Amino acid sequence: MVFNSFAFAAFFLTVYVLYLLTMRRHRLQNALLLIASYVFYGWWDWRFLALLAFTTLVDFAIAILLDRRRGVSLGTPSHDASPRYALTPAGRRRLLFVSIVANLGVLGFFKYFGFFVDSAVEGLALLRWEASGPAIRVLLPIGISFYTFQSLSYTIDVYRGELRASRNLIDFALFVSFFPQLVAGPIARANDLLPQVSRPRILEIERILEGAYLIFWGLFKKIVIADNVAALVDAVFSTASPAGDRVVLGVWAYAIQIYCDFSGYSDIARGCAKTMGFEFPLNFRLPYFASNPAEFWRRWHISLSTWLRDYLYIPLGGNRLGSRRTYANLMVTMLLGGLWHGAAWTFVVWGLLHGVLLAGHRWITARRRTAGPGEDEGGTPVERAFKTIGFFQLVCLGWLVFRAESMGQVVNMLAAVFAPETWRILSGQAAAMLVEAARLAAFSLPLFLLEWLQFRRQDLNALLALPAPVRGFAYAGLLFALVLTGNPTARPFIYFQF
Q1: Catalytic site residues?
Q2: Which end of the chain is more exposed for a tag (fewer CB within 10 A), N or C?
Protein backbone atom coordinates (compact mmCIF):
# COMPACT_ATOMS: atom_id res chain seq x y z
CA MET A 1 0.00 0.00 0.00
CA VAL A 2 1.72 3.16 -1.20
CA PHE A 3 0.68 6.79 -0.75
CA ASN A 4 0.09 7.21 -4.49
CA SER A 5 -2.52 4.45 -4.69
CA PHE A 6 -6.29 4.29 -4.43
CA ALA A 7 -5.90 1.62 -1.75
CA PHE A 8 -4.12 4.08 0.54
CA ALA A 9 -6.66 6.79 -0.21
CA ALA A 10 -9.44 4.46 0.95
CA PHE A 11 -7.39 3.30 3.94
CA PHE A 12 -6.56 6.82 5.11
CA LEU A 13 -10.10 8.09 4.61
CA THR A 14 -11.47 5.21 6.70
CA VAL A 15 -8.89 5.72 9.47
CA TYR A 16 -9.47 9.48 9.47
CA VAL A 17 -13.25 9.17 9.82
CA LEU A 18 -12.81 6.77 12.75
CA TYR A 19 -10.19 9.10 14.21
CA LEU A 20 -12.62 12.03 14.11
CA LEU A 21 -15.36 9.92 15.71
CA THR A 22 -13.08 9.16 18.66
CA MET A 23 -11.77 12.71 19.20
CA ARG A 24 -12.93 12.80 22.81
CA ARG A 25 -11.34 9.43 23.65
CA HIS A 26 -7.60 9.92 23.34
CA ARG A 27 -6.57 6.41 24.41
CA LEU A 28 -9.01 4.84 21.98
CA GLN A 29 -7.55 7.04 19.24
CA ASN A 30 -4.07 5.74 20.00
CA ALA A 31 -5.26 2.15 19.90
CA LEU A 32 -6.99 2.85 16.58
CA LEU A 33 -3.83 4.39 15.09
CA LEU A 34 -1.70 1.52 16.35
CA ILE A 35 -3.98 -1.09 14.75
CA ALA A 36 -4.07 0.96 11.54
CA SER A 37 -0.27 1.20 11.54
CA TYR A 38 0.14 -2.56 11.86
CA VAL A 39 -2.43 -3.13 9.11
CA PHE A 40 -0.58 -0.64 6.92
CA TYR A 41 2.79 -2.34 7.51
CA GLY A 42 1.38 -5.84 7.23
CA TRP A 43 -0.09 -4.95 3.84
CA TRP A 44 3.31 -5.68 2.29
CA ASP A 45 4.17 -8.82 4.23
CA TRP A 46 2.46 -9.71 7.51
CA ARG A 47 5.40 -11.89 8.56
CA PHE A 48 7.57 -8.83 9.19
CA LEU A 49 5.15 -7.56 11.81
CA ALA A 50 7.01 -9.82 14.23
CA LEU A 51 10.23 -7.84 13.64
CA LEU A 52 8.44 -4.55 14.26
CA ALA A 53 6.92 -5.93 17.47
CA PHE A 54 10.30 -7.36 18.56
CA THR A 55 12.04 -3.99 18.21
CA THR A 56 9.20 -2.29 20.07
CA LEU A 57 9.11 -4.70 23.01
CA VAL A 58 12.88 -4.88 23.45
CA ASP A 59 13.38 -1.11 23.56
CA PHE A 60 10.27 -0.54 25.67
CA ALA A 61 11.52 -2.93 28.36
CA ILE A 62 15.15 -1.83 28.27
CA ALA A 63 14.25 1.85 28.50
CA ILE A 64 12.18 1.22 31.65
CA LEU A 65 15.14 -0.59 33.24
CA LEU A 66 17.50 2.23 32.22
CA ASP A 67 15.14 4.83 33.66
CA ARG A 68 14.83 3.30 37.11
CA ARG A 69 17.42 5.58 38.67
CA ARG A 70 16.89 8.74 36.64
CA GLY A 71 14.15 10.35 38.77
CA VAL A 72 16.32 12.63 40.92
CA SER A 73 18.57 13.90 38.15
CA LEU A 74 15.67 14.79 35.87
CA GLY A 75 13.66 16.45 38.59
CA THR A 76 10.71 14.11 38.18
CA PRO A 77 9.87 11.42 40.75
CA SER A 78 10.52 7.94 39.43
CA HIS A 79 8.30 4.96 40.16
CA ASP A 80 11.42 2.80 40.48
CA ALA A 81 13.84 5.18 42.23
CA SER A 82 14.43 3.07 45.36
CA PRO A 83 18.05 1.95 45.91
CA ARG A 84 17.27 -1.75 45.56
CA TYR A 85 16.35 -1.13 41.91
CA ALA A 86 19.42 1.00 41.19
CA LEU A 87 21.68 -0.11 38.39
CA THR A 88 25.42 0.38 38.35
CA PRO A 89 26.89 2.39 35.45
CA ALA A 90 28.28 -0.86 34.07
CA GLY A 91 24.84 -2.46 34.28
CA ARG A 92 23.27 0.45 32.44
CA ARG A 93 25.92 0.22 29.73
CA ARG A 94 25.21 -3.48 29.33
CA LEU A 95 21.50 -2.77 28.92
CA LEU A 96 22.20 -0.16 26.27
CA PHE A 97 24.53 -2.63 24.56
CA VAL A 98 21.69 -5.17 24.43
CA SER A 99 19.42 -2.61 22.75
CA ILE A 100 22.10 -1.66 20.22
CA VAL A 101 22.90 -5.29 19.42
CA ALA A 102 19.22 -6.25 19.15
CA ASN A 103 18.39 -3.36 16.81
CA LEU A 104 21.52 -3.33 14.67
CA GLY A 105 21.73 -7.13 14.71
CA VAL A 106 18.30 -7.47 13.14
CA LEU A 107 19.02 -4.63 10.73
CA GLY A 108 22.42 -6.04 9.80
CA PHE A 109 21.16 -9.56 9.19
CA PHE A 110 18.26 -8.63 6.97
CA LYS A 111 19.98 -5.80 5.14
CA TYR A 112 23.64 -6.80 4.86
CA PHE A 113 23.84 -10.60 5.12
CA GLY A 114 23.91 -11.18 1.37
CA PHE A 115 26.22 -8.21 0.75
CA PHE A 116 28.93 -9.38 3.14
CA VAL A 117 28.68 -13.00 2.00
CA ASP A 118 28.96 -12.03 -1.67
CA SER A 119 31.83 -9.63 -0.93
CA ALA A 120 33.68 -12.35 0.98
CA VAL A 121 33.23 -14.82 -1.89
CA GLU A 122 34.49 -12.25 -4.41
CA GLY A 123 37.46 -11.40 -2.19
CA LEU A 124 38.44 -15.04 -1.88
CA ALA A 125 38.12 -15.42 -5.65
CA LEU A 126 40.72 -12.69 -6.09
CA LEU A 127 43.05 -14.81 -3.97
CA ARG A 128 42.25 -17.80 -6.22
CA TRP A 129 40.31 -19.54 -3.47
CA GLU A 130 37.06 -21.07 -4.60
CA ALA A 131 34.12 -20.49 -2.31
CA SER A 132 30.37 -20.19 -2.55
CA GLY A 133 27.87 -18.48 -0.31
CA PRO A 134 24.83 -20.15 1.24
CA ALA A 135 21.98 -20.72 -1.16
CA ILE A 136 19.62 -18.39 0.68
CA ARG A 137 18.54 -14.85 0.02
CA VAL A 138 17.21 -12.73 2.83
CA LEU A 139 14.19 -10.61 1.96
CA LEU A 140 14.59 -7.01 3.15
CA PRO A 141 11.71 -5.86 5.40
CA ILE A 142 10.38 -2.54 4.15
CA GLY A 143 11.22 0.47 6.30
CA ILE A 144 13.48 -1.45 8.70
CA SER A 145 16.26 1.15 8.51
CA PHE A 146 13.87 3.94 9.52
CA TYR A 147 12.02 2.40 12.44
CA THR A 148 15.20 0.76 13.78
CA PHE A 149 16.99 4.12 13.99
CA GLN A 150 13.92 5.76 15.48
CA SER A 151 13.54 3.17 18.23
CA LEU A 152 17.29 2.99 18.93
CA SER A 153 17.56 6.75 19.42
CA TYR A 154 14.87 6.46 22.10
CA THR A 155 16.85 4.04 24.28
CA ILE A 156 20.03 6.10 23.79
CA ASP A 157 18.21 9.24 24.94
CA VAL A 158 16.83 7.44 28.00
CA TYR A 159 20.34 6.12 28.77
CA ARG A 160 21.75 9.65 28.54
CA GLY A 161 19.09 10.92 30.93
CA GLU A 162 17.60 13.23 28.30
CA LEU A 163 14.24 11.48 28.27
CA ARG A 164 11.96 9.61 30.65
CA ALA A 165 10.97 6.10 29.62
CA SER A 166 7.38 5.59 28.49
CA ARG A 167 5.34 3.29 30.74
CA ASN A 168 2.51 2.94 28.25
CA LEU A 169 3.17 0.19 25.72
CA ILE A 170 0.47 1.35 23.28
CA ASP A 171 1.88 4.89 23.24
CA PHE A 172 5.41 3.65 22.67
CA ALA A 173 4.36 1.13 20.03
CA LEU A 174 2.52 3.89 18.19
CA PHE A 175 5.64 6.09 18.36
CA VAL A 176 7.67 3.35 16.67
CA SER A 177 5.09 2.31 14.08
CA PHE A 178 2.96 5.38 13.27
CA PHE A 179 2.02 4.64 9.67
CA PRO A 180 2.57 7.99 7.86
CA GLN A 181 6.33 7.89 8.48
CA LEU A 182 6.86 4.20 9.22
CA VAL A 183 8.47 3.02 6.00
CA ALA A 184 10.41 6.08 4.74
CA GLY A 185 10.59 8.64 7.50
CA PRO A 186 11.09 11.30 8.59
CA ILE A 187 12.96 9.68 11.49
CA ALA A 188 11.19 11.19 14.49
CA ARG A 189 12.78 11.70 17.90
CA ALA A 190 11.01 10.42 21.00
CA ASN A 191 11.31 13.74 22.86
CA ASP A 192 9.32 15.33 20.03
CA LEU A 193 6.80 12.68 18.93
CA LEU A 194 6.11 10.75 22.15
CA PRO A 195 4.58 13.75 23.98
CA GLN A 196 2.28 14.26 20.99
CA VAL A 197 1.24 10.62 21.22
CA SER A 198 0.69 10.63 24.97
CA ARG A 199 -1.51 13.72 25.15
CA PRO A 200 -4.81 14.52 23.40
CA ARG A 201 -4.52 16.23 20.03
CA ILE A 202 -6.37 19.37 19.06
CA LEU A 203 -7.42 19.75 15.44
CA GLU A 204 -7.16 23.25 14.00
CA ILE A 205 -8.51 24.18 10.58
CA GLU A 206 -5.28 25.98 9.64
CA ARG A 207 -3.18 22.89 10.27
CA ILE A 208 -5.67 20.65 8.46
CA LEU A 209 -5.53 22.92 5.40
CA GLU A 210 -1.73 23.04 5.56
CA GLY A 211 -1.70 19.24 5.81
CA ALA A 212 -3.96 18.93 2.79
CA TYR A 213 -1.64 21.24 0.85
CA LEU A 214 1.38 19.11 1.77
CA ILE A 215 -0.41 15.93 0.70
CA PHE A 216 -1.40 17.47 -2.63
CA TRP A 217 2.04 18.94 -3.33
CA GLY A 218 3.75 15.69 -2.31
CA LEU A 219 1.55 13.67 -4.65
CA PHE A 220 2.29 16.14 -7.45
CA LYS A 221 6.05 15.84 -6.92
CA LYS A 222 5.85 12.05 -6.88
CA ILE A 223 3.29 11.32 -9.61
CA VAL A 224 3.81 14.18 -12.07
CA ILE A 225 7.51 14.94 -11.73
CA ALA A 226 9.36 11.93 -10.29
CA ASP A 227 7.44 9.18 -12.09
CA ASN A 228 7.56 10.94 -15.45
CA VAL A 229 11.28 11.74 -15.46
CA ALA A 230 11.92 8.17 -14.27
CA ALA A 231 11.50 6.93 -17.85
CA LEU A 232 14.51 8.96 -18.98
CA VAL A 233 16.56 7.86 -15.96
CA ASP A 234 15.78 4.19 -16.46
CA ALA A 235 16.57 4.39 -20.17
CA VAL A 236 19.98 5.96 -19.55
CA PHE A 237 21.03 3.63 -16.73
CA SER A 238 19.85 0.52 -18.60
CA THR A 239 21.87 1.33 -21.73
CA ALA A 240 25.18 -0.49 -22.00
CA SER A 241 27.02 2.38 -23.73
CA PRO A 242 25.05 5.63 -23.39
CA ALA A 243 26.17 8.83 -25.08
CA GLY A 244 28.02 11.29 -22.88
CA ASP A 245 25.45 14.07 -23.13
CA ARG A 246 22.69 11.57 -22.39
CA VAL A 247 24.52 10.48 -19.24
CA VAL A 248 24.63 14.10 -18.07
CA LEU A 249 20.94 14.59 -18.82
CA GLY A 250 20.05 11.27 -17.19
CA VAL A 251 21.93 12.13 -14.00
CA TRP A 252 20.28 15.55 -13.84
CA ALA A 253 16.95 13.78 -14.30
CA TYR A 254 17.77 11.38 -11.49
CA ALA A 255 18.62 14.31 -9.22
CA ILE A 256 15.11 15.61 -9.85
CA GLN A 257 13.53 12.17 -9.58
CA ILE A 258 15.04 11.14 -6.26
CA TYR A 259 14.39 14.54 -4.70
CA CYS A 260 10.75 14.73 -5.79
CA ASP A 261 10.20 11.06 -4.96
CA PHE A 262 11.68 11.20 -1.46
CA SER A 263 10.62 14.71 -0.47
CA GLY A 264 7.20 13.95 -1.95
CA TYR A 265 6.87 11.02 0.45
CA SER A 266 7.97 13.22 3.37
CA ASP A 267 5.46 15.91 2.40
CA ILE A 268 2.61 13.39 2.27
CA ALA A 269 3.67 11.90 5.60
CA ARG A 270 3.85 15.31 7.25
CA GLY A 271 0.55 16.30 5.67
CA CYS A 272 -1.28 13.19 6.89
CA ALA A 273 0.13 13.76 10.38
CA LYS A 274 -0.91 17.43 10.41
CA THR A 275 -4.50 16.57 9.55
CA MET A 276 -4.56 14.40 12.68
CA GLY A 277 -2.92 16.98 14.96
CA PHE A 278 0.65 15.65 14.85
CA GLU A 279 3.77 17.50 13.77
CA PHE A 280 6.65 15.62 12.11
CA PRO A 281 10.13 17.11 11.73
CA LEU A 282 11.00 18.83 8.48
CA ASN A 283 13.03 16.48 6.29
CA PHE A 284 13.89 18.71 3.29
CA ARG A 285 14.53 22.43 3.05
CA LEU A 286 15.32 23.34 -0.58
CA PRO A 287 18.48 21.18 -0.76
CA TYR A 288 19.42 22.10 -4.33
CA PHE A 289 19.79 25.73 -3.29
CA ALA A 290 22.78 24.73 -1.15
CA SER A 291 26.11 26.20 -2.20
CA ASN A 292 28.39 23.89 -0.18
CA PRO A 293 28.37 20.37 1.31
CA ALA A 294 27.64 21.40 4.89
CA GLU A 295 24.65 23.45 3.82
CA PHE A 296 23.41 20.61 1.63
CA TRP A 297 23.31 18.20 4.57
CA ARG A 298 21.41 20.77 6.62
CA ARG A 299 18.80 20.76 3.86
CA TRP A 300 18.74 17.13 2.59
CA HIS A 301 17.23 14.23 4.59
CA ILE A 302 17.52 16.36 7.72
CA SER A 303 16.19 13.71 10.08
CA LEU A 304 18.95 11.26 9.04
CA SER A 305 21.78 13.81 8.93
CA THR A 306 20.92 15.09 12.42
CA TRP A 307 20.60 11.48 13.66
CA LEU A 308 24.07 10.66 12.37
CA ARG A 309 25.40 13.87 13.91
CA ASP A 310 23.90 13.29 17.36
CA TYR A 311 24.36 9.53 17.69
CA LEU A 312 27.53 8.90 15.68
CA TYR A 313 29.60 11.97 14.79
CA ILE A 314 29.45 13.68 18.21
CA PRO A 315 30.00 10.45 20.23
CA LEU A 316 33.05 9.75 18.03
CA GLY A 317 34.47 13.07 19.20
CA GLY A 318 32.97 15.46 16.65
CA ASN A 319 35.31 18.38 16.13
CA ARG A 320 36.61 18.41 19.73
CA LEU A 321 39.72 16.26 19.27
CA GLY A 322 41.71 18.15 16.67
CA SER A 323 41.47 18.61 12.92
CA ARG A 324 42.73 15.16 11.89
CA ARG A 325 40.28 13.40 14.16
CA THR A 326 37.50 15.69 12.92
CA TYR A 327 38.18 14.72 9.30
CA ALA A 328 38.29 11.05 10.27
CA ASN A 329 34.98 11.38 12.13
CA LEU A 330 33.39 13.02 9.09
CA MET A 331 34.59 10.22 6.84
CA VAL A 332 33.39 7.45 9.16
CA THR A 333 30.01 9.13 9.66
CA MET A 334 29.37 9.60 5.97
CA LEU A 335 30.66 6.13 5.08
CA LEU A 336 28.19 4.57 7.51
CA GLY A 337 25.52 6.99 6.29
CA GLY A 338 26.11 5.68 2.78
CA LEU A 339 26.00 2.08 3.95
CA TRP A 340 22.72 2.81 5.77
CA HIS A 341 21.13 3.32 2.36
CA GLY A 342 21.86 -0.17 1.15
CA ALA A 343 24.16 -3.15 0.87
CA ALA A 344 26.23 -2.18 -2.16
CA TRP A 345 29.66 -0.73 -2.81
CA THR A 346 28.07 2.12 -4.74
CA PHE A 347 26.45 3.37 -1.52
CA VAL A 348 29.75 3.07 0.34
CA VAL A 349 31.52 5.11 -2.35
CA TRP A 350 28.67 7.64 -2.37
CA GLY A 351 29.06 8.10 1.38
CA LEU A 352 32.84 8.44 1.08
CA LEU A 353 32.42 11.01 -1.69
CA HIS A 354 30.24 13.17 0.54
CA GLY A 355 32.70 12.65 3.39
CA VAL A 356 35.49 13.99 1.17
CA LEU A 357 33.33 16.95 0.16
CA LEU A 358 32.52 17.79 3.79
CA ALA A 359 36.13 17.41 4.91
CA GLY A 360 37.39 19.45 1.95
CA HIS A 361 34.88 22.22 2.60
CA ARG A 362 35.86 22.32 6.25
CA TRP A 363 39.56 22.51 5.37
CA ILE A 364 39.01 25.32 2.83
CA THR A 365 36.87 27.42 5.17
CA ALA A 366 39.39 26.92 7.99
CA ARG A 367 42.22 28.01 5.71
CA ARG A 368 40.32 31.12 4.72
CA ARG A 369 39.48 31.86 8.35
CA THR A 370 35.88 32.41 7.39
CA ALA A 371 32.65 30.90 8.70
CA GLY A 372 32.83 27.26 9.77
CA PRO A 373 30.94 24.52 7.93
CA GLY A 374 27.93 25.07 10.14
CA GLU A 375 27.28 28.54 8.67
CA ASP A 376 26.16 29.67 5.25
CA GLU A 377 28.74 31.29 3.01
CA GLY A 378 28.21 34.90 2.04
CA GLY A 379 28.88 36.62 -1.26
CA THR A 380 26.80 38.47 -3.79
CA PRO A 381 23.69 36.82 -5.27
CA VAL A 382 25.60 36.19 -8.50
CA GLU A 383 28.50 34.56 -6.62
CA ARG A 384 26.12 32.42 -4.66
CA ALA A 385 24.30 31.39 -7.84
CA PHE A 386 27.55 30.22 -9.43
CA LYS A 387 28.52 28.35 -6.26
CA THR A 388 25.10 26.71 -6.11
CA ILE A 389 25.18 25.61 -9.74
CA GLY A 390 28.73 24.33 -9.39
CA PHE A 391 28.00 22.42 -6.21
CA PHE A 392 24.88 20.92 -7.79
CA GLN A 393 27.15 19.23 -10.33
CA LEU A 394 29.11 17.63 -7.49
CA VAL A 395 25.84 16.44 -5.96
CA CYS A 396 24.91 14.96 -9.33
CA LEU A 397 28.24 13.15 -9.47
CA GLY A 398 27.21 11.54 -6.21
CA TRP A 399 23.80 10.67 -7.64
CA LEU A 400 25.46 8.91 -10.57
CA VAL A 401 27.28 6.66 -8.11
CA PHE A 402 24.15 6.25 -5.97
CA ARG A 403 21.94 5.19 -8.90
CA ALA A 404 24.44 2.96 -10.74
CA GLU A 405 24.12 -0.81 -10.51
CA SER A 406 27.88 -1.24 -9.97
CA MET A 407 31.12 0.70 -9.83
CA GLY A 408 31.90 -0.68 -13.28
CA GLN A 409 28.88 1.14 -14.65
CA VAL A 410 30.03 4.32 -12.89
CA VAL A 411 33.40 4.12 -14.64
CA ASN A 412 31.80 3.47 -18.05
CA MET A 413 29.36 6.38 -17.71
CA LEU A 414 32.05 8.80 -16.56
CA ALA A 415 34.23 7.70 -19.47
CA ALA A 416 31.37 8.55 -21.84
CA VAL A 417 30.96 11.99 -20.29
CA PHE A 418 34.63 12.81 -20.91
CA ALA A 419 34.60 11.42 -24.45
CA PRO A 420 33.22 14.21 -26.72
CA GLU A 421 32.94 11.85 -29.68
CA THR A 422 30.11 10.01 -27.89
CA TRP A 423 27.99 13.13 -27.43
CA ARG A 424 24.98 13.02 -29.74
CA ILE A 425 24.55 16.77 -29.70
CA LEU A 426 28.01 17.06 -31.32
CA SER A 427 27.39 14.35 -33.90
CA GLY A 428 24.29 15.56 -35.71
CA GLN A 429 21.71 14.04 -33.34
CA ALA A 430 20.89 17.21 -31.46
CA ALA A 431 17.13 16.96 -32.13
CA ALA A 432 16.65 13.82 -30.03
CA MET A 433 18.75 15.29 -27.24
CA LEU A 434 16.80 18.54 -27.23
CA VAL A 435 13.46 16.71 -27.06
CA GLU A 436 14.60 14.82 -23.94
CA ALA A 437 16.00 18.01 -22.40
CA ALA A 438 12.76 19.89 -23.11
CA ARG A 439 10.73 17.11 -21.51
CA LEU A 440 12.89 17.21 -18.37
CA ALA A 441 12.65 21.01 -18.22
CA ALA A 442 8.87 20.96 -18.64
CA PHE A 443 8.33 18.57 -15.73
CA SER A 444 10.89 20.36 -13.55
CA LEU A 445 9.55 23.89 -14.16
CA PRO A 446 6.72 23.83 -11.53
CA LEU A 447 9.20 22.60 -8.93
CA PHE A 448 11.71 25.31 -9.77
CA LEU A 449 9.11 28.10 -9.75
CA LEU A 450 7.66 27.17 -6.37
CA GLU A 451 11.01 26.51 -4.71
CA TRP A 452 12.44 29.77 -6.08
CA LEU A 453 9.48 31.56 -4.47
CA GLN A 454 10.09 29.69 -1.22
CA PHE A 455 13.80 30.51 -1.33
CA ARG A 456 13.30 34.18 -2.07
CA ARG A 457 10.76 34.56 0.74
CA GLN A 458 12.54 32.13 3.06
CA ASP A 459 9.17 30.52 3.69
CA LEU A 460 8.25 26.95 2.76
CA ASN A 461 4.58 27.93 2.96
CA ALA A 462 5.03 30.85 0.56
CA LEU A 463 2.34 29.52 -1.79
CA LEU A 464 -0.21 29.60 1.03
CA ALA A 465 0.54 33.29 1.58
CA LEU A 466 -0.26 34.31 -2.01
CA PRO A 467 -3.57 36.03 -2.83
CA ALA A 468 -6.50 33.64 -3.18
CA PRO A 469 -6.89 34.08 -6.98
CA VAL A 470 -3.21 33.31 -7.53
CA ARG A 471 -3.41 30.29 -5.25
CA GLY A 472 -6.51 29.06 -7.03
CA PHE A 473 -4.85 29.39 -10.43
CA ALA A 474 -1.77 27.52 -9.15
CA TYR A 475 -3.84 24.72 -7.64
CA ALA A 476 -5.88 24.36 -10.82
CA GLY A 477 -2.73 24.10 -12.90
CA LEU A 478 -1.20 21.50 -10.60
CA LEU A 479 -4.44 19.49 -10.56
CA PHE A 480 -4.69 19.63 -14.35
CA ALA A 481 -1.10 18.37 -14.68
CA LEU A 482 -1.81 15.64 -12.13
CA VAL A 483 -4.80 14.38 -14.10
CA LEU A 484 -3.20 14.82 -17.52
CA THR A 485 0.25 13.33 -16.91
CA GLY A 486 -0.22 11.19 -13.82
CA ASN A 487 0.80 7.56 -14.11
CA PRO A 488 -2.22 5.32 -13.37
CA THR A 489 0.14 2.61 -12.07
CA ALA A 490 1.30 3.31 -8.53
CA ARG A 491 5.11 3.32 -8.76
CA PRO A 492 6.83 2.50 -5.42
CA PHE A 493 8.83 5.21 -3.72
CA ILE A 494 12.60 4.93 -4.18
CA TYR A 495 13.40 4.97 -0.48
CA PHE A 496 11.21 1.93 0.20
CA GLN A 497 14.24 -0.17 -0.74
CA PHE A 498 16.28 1.35 2.07
Answers
A1: 341
A2: N
